[in-house]
Every structure is written in C-alpha cells, then in structure tokens.
Amino acid sequence: MKKLSDVQLSVLDLAPVAQDKTISDSFKNTLNLAQHVERLGYHRFWLAEHHNLEGIASAATSVLIGYVAGGTSKIRVGSGGIMLPNHAPLVIAEQFGTLATLYPDRIDLGLGRAPGTDGLTMRALRREMTGREAEFSDLVKELQYYFAPVHDGQKVRAIPGAGIPVPLWLLGSSLYSAQLAAELGLPYAFAGHFAPELMMQAIDIYRVGFRPSNVLDKPKVMVGVQVLAADTDEKAHLLGTTVYQRFLGIIRNQRVSLQPPVKSMDGLWGPAEKDLVLSRLRTSVIGNPQKVREGLQKLINKTEADELIIVSDAYDHEDRLRSFEIIKEVTRE
Fold first, then answer.
1. Cut 0.90: pTM above it
2. Which of 134-155 are b and which e, b meaning 16 or more Cβ less than 10 Å from the residue's Cβ?
3. What tens digit of pLDDT does each residue of 38-70 get?
4. What end-to-end distance do the CA atoms of the chain give, in Å?
C-alpha cells in the first residue's frame, strides 16, 4: 500500500480575489504562497486559466507563471491548465518555450479542453466559431509538433519552443482526456477537487489503456483535491464555509469574490443545493491535522495516485499559508 509520505504534493492556485481585496492583492498573495510552499518542499505550483469569472484573477496564465517563476528559485511552475482550444498551439508553444528558456527545467504545461468560462466569453476568446473547430487531440498533437526538434523543410517553427522538452500533462474531469493521455503516453491529472464523479473510472481507463511513449514508460496520475487544514476541527470547518459559498455560487451561476467564512450555512443554501455542493466536494478533506492525514491517506488508498495537487482557498491569506503548512507536516509523518 502506498504511503502518504511516498506521494508528491503540489499546489493549484487560481489567484483568488477575496471580498474587499484587489486583484493586485491577489497577485501578491499568489507569489507569497508560491514562495511559502517552495520553502515547505512542495513539488509544483500550478495556475489555472479562467476568464470572466468574478473572484478568479488567473486569466493571463502564462504571464502569472512567469511572475511566480521569477520570484521563486526551485519549485516547478506551470499551468493547471491552459485551455488549449482557446489558443493557437503555435502561440502556446512560443509562450512556454519562452518560459522554459527563462526558467530551465522548471516549467510544466498542463492542458485542458474546457473553455474555462461561459459560452459568450468563449466566443469572445475564439472569435470565429464555425462548428468545425479542431479536435482537442489534433491541437495537442500540433503543439507537440512545435515543441519537437525542427526537421528539414519545416516552414513554421516555434521560436523559442522548438526542441525544448516542456513536460506536457493532460487534465480532465471526464473520460475523454483520460483516453487521450493513455493513447499519447502522457501524464494525467484528474480534477477531483471539483468534479469527483468519474474520478475512479477515468483513472482506470488511463491506466489500462496507457501506451508507453518517449516521455513516459508507465502511467503517472495526479489527483486534484480540496483541503482546508487548521489546528482545530472547529477552525477548519469555519474556513470551509468559504469553499461552500464558492461552490454554491457556481451551481447558482452566480460567480462572486471569495467570501468570508460564516458560522453556519443554514439560510444560505437549501437542502437540494447543500446536497449538490457536498457532492461536488465529496473528495475534500477539511479538519485538524489528524483528520487531514487520515483523509489524504484514504484518497491515496483509493486512487493510488503518484501526486496530489491541492487547492486550499481559505478567505484569509494567513489561514491559507497555515493550511499548507499543516498539510506538509502531516504528510511527513
């Protein structure tokens, strides 16, 4: 049985904007968090692409990756993920080729196929949508082509980018990306932190169908998980109400800034809404150090993941820093 101490720990950040705080505050907190978890020994710090969502400031993901990489020295920094259908693969190859040149052996490129936004904003991002957009698999293969060494007669090159081995990950919350990651022999990250329904099925499909490639000889699985750790259960569950409010806004299609914790969610959600929120968060781990250790070990026992990437969105930045401290402490034991 795999132990928690055998599993790499990483961080997923959306540059959350708390109520009554500015986007500038959010960016400063993102860098401060990255520096903090680097000192603690976390493996990666990833940022996620989202657009037109109140309370999330990571829209210009490549720019933020450069900001974080420039303010840290050894932690891997990357995207969790870049929503590839929003971009020309050549542009992403150039951006991440630039990042990997500036920060060698530290840049990851996680790729997703969801828009990371609503339909209207998606049209604004992609401009002309003909209904014949390229398949995600074709976009990934085109991106791999631009990162490959240049061959004779190649007329379009990524400069920089060509010949730079930026590690690619496929991200997903459904079965499609699991199948594609297996087919291409790429590492796979499942979004268990917000869509756990198909988690085990997707991981099984990936592992069973995996084909070794020139970058990976056996399956590599990362699982996203929401964790809020505090010194007491009471404090942790108070902090957790901020996450409950965020997910309640999602199911109501009301995106708001990160809200302060509340003593009780009663009166904020109805019974059906409560069930929906808790269903989306059923893999989450909220509690004191012992409960966090037990909850994360249970997730490892279930998934046999090689790596956990953790979201911990406490309203107060100091509580967030403390949460990541506790998580790291309990996984060393």
1. yes
2. eebbebbebbebbbbeeeeeee
3. 999 999 999 999 888 889 999 999 999 999 999
4. 16
